[in-house]
């Protein structure tokens, strides 16, 4: 099944990938996807280093969250609005 | 209760009136206190002297996150209404960035609601500031003091 | 910095603009946060269902006390400006009674300044509320919770 | 020498005296004046019972404050503005 990965701010600039589609297996967690992306290339490795937040379908989530078909998984740095 | 994410500037007076009318509609005669907060761009920020900021956001999530926060504030502090407005895009020095307003029966609830909205917004709404000067720009780092401010609300009974 | 004691109603938007202009004049480009508080008469107060309140004051002292408070807030919280407006005389349900505004570099200072102004106003400015319904009226008793709120600022470093 | 005494709110209603002029001696304190007023009549006794605040020349003061010529001394209940 397929998910959409999105990135924002520094994470977007470092990964050089604002958005991509990814094939995942049933039961894969955010942590699994994160380590697959880190192994893809050095840009992703750098982008996902340190404190990066994740959101599944536009809600903040943690690394243990299990992903499903057509989910949108976003990576971004700590927010700085306000 | 309302929230907006927008590129254009907002009018403090109009938002205040809208909040007051909403509170009066939701709980007639029960609003004794209204607190508003407006955030503005200062000339001199983290990186020193700047021309302004650019705000990036996660469009599909920002509005949802802001609506959720406003709802949480109303429930948690028994407010008669609450609202939040945040600008995105390019914003110059001395311009307005963010506005929150809380209406409640008593002053403590309205003050707490507005503090809560600002503290949590800086923690859970996907917005990122980049300060610019001329052709150079630099991302603003998240502050530890903002983490501490948000944590305060999570540990309070 | 400004303060008014007046019988007639005030306009929140005008006061907000006046505060912002004063802050910009006193410390150009250094205001990052503006907090306002507006107090309104609720239908249902201490004595139950009411028609409104009458505010008595000590004219020669009220303005001095309010000016002093505004000055203290600016000094204590390093504000770029602060202001307070209080009505006296007869005020009906849902009408405005009091407004305070604080402008500062950061949000915490502006929030603290506005809380401080309201807490101390309820302790040191000679104003007394009488609630009325038809031809009967009753003085409002000072609240212990207001004493506690003011005490908080006296013991804080 | 002479001072002016003023009262407000409940204190004014109970004392039935919004304002009066009073002769005092050099060095008299607020406490002295208060006990003289209390002894004047039952209205004043009632008005100055319990928690009553005092201001000398429009500034809050305590009972040990020494009064001077032409001072304005005000009595009133705890304030309830805001």
TrEMBL record, chains A, D:
Pfam families: ThiS. This is Molybdopterin synthase sulfur carrier subunit. The lineage of its organism: Bacteria, Pseudomonadati, Pseudomonadota, Gammaproteobacteria, Alteromonadales.
From TrEMBL, chains B, C:
It is an enzyme of class 2 (transferase). Its EC number is 2.8.1.12. Pfam families: MoaE (PF02391). Signal peptide: none annotated. The keyword Kinase does not apply. It catalyses: 2 [molybdopterin-synthase sulfur-carrier protein]-C-terminal-Gly-aminoethanethioate + cyclic pyranopterin phosphate + H2O = molybdopterin + 2 [molybdopterin-synthase sulfur-carrier protein]-C-terminal Gly-Gly + 2 H(+). Pathway: Cofactor biosynthesis; molybdopterin biosynthesis. InterPro entries: MoaE_sf (IPR036563), Mopterin_biosynth_MoaE (IPR003448). GO terms for biological process: Mo-molybdopterin cofactor biosynthetic process. Keywords: Molybdenum cofactor biosynthesis. GO terms for molecular function: molybdopterin synthase activity. Heterotetramer of 2 MoaD subunits and 2 MoaE subunits. Also stable as homodimer. The enzyme changes between these two forms during catalysis. Belongs to the MoaE family. This is Molybdopterin synthase catalytic subunit. It comes from Alteromonas hispanica.
